Amino acid sequence: MTEKVRDHTYDDETVERRLAAELPNWRLENGWIRRKYRTNSWKGTLMAVNAVGHLAEAAWHHPDITMSYGWFEVRLKNHAANGITDKDFALAKKIEEVIQWQPGEEDGPLEGTPQKDLRFAYIKYD
What we know:
Elements: H1 12-22, E1 27-29, E2 32-38, H2 42-59, E3 64-68, E4 71-76, H3 86-99
Antiparallel strand pairs: 1-2, 2-4, 3-4
């Protein structure tokens, strides 16, 4: 088996341009791409962080996560490559897709989490 070639890293200007085009709610700061998600409760935070954990483990690309009662922040960079790579963009897109998913907004059988009743509110969607 041949050794995998080191992942290509992007310069800050390219990262900023790609974020603007592909992940407008993410930002580049201190060498990481980052996104802060707001939740309605500790339960919502834990559920969302666990979803991110599942995605990261399945992808074998692991973010740093900071969390509190009503929010969590995901930070991505490729430690082995010492910078931002396509792996970071790909995982950020999958996280965004899953966390921002609102089945009630789709024309399908799933109604989604009730947003008007705060007892059941989960993520504060963008």
